[in-house]
Design brief:
Layout lengths: L1 E2 H18 L4 H15 L2 H22 L5 H12 L10 E2 L1
Parallel strand pairs: 1-2
Helix pairs in contact: 1-2, 1-4, 2-3
Amino acid sequence: MVNKTEVVDTMQALVSELQKNHAQSETTSYVSETLQKLKKSDGVAFTGSLQLFFNQANIVKISDNIQLNKEEKTLWRKLFAFNSLGNNLWGASL
């Protein structure tokens, strides 16, 4: 069972890695802003915010034209693996 802490911790690790190499990028800003929203959200607000992130993050990243390093790619994929759990129908402990 996935919990909020696992999602937030993964996103925090991603933000930390992105800030090392892409501090001024739109992608880093978007992930960081979403992280702050998720930390303040619970239940349906949390899953809704996370689903919005899943819907938009790749578009932001492609538009930003940044290349992720190996660690960033690993964290990006780990974060997006939560997308397979679905929107508000998560089997998650939030």
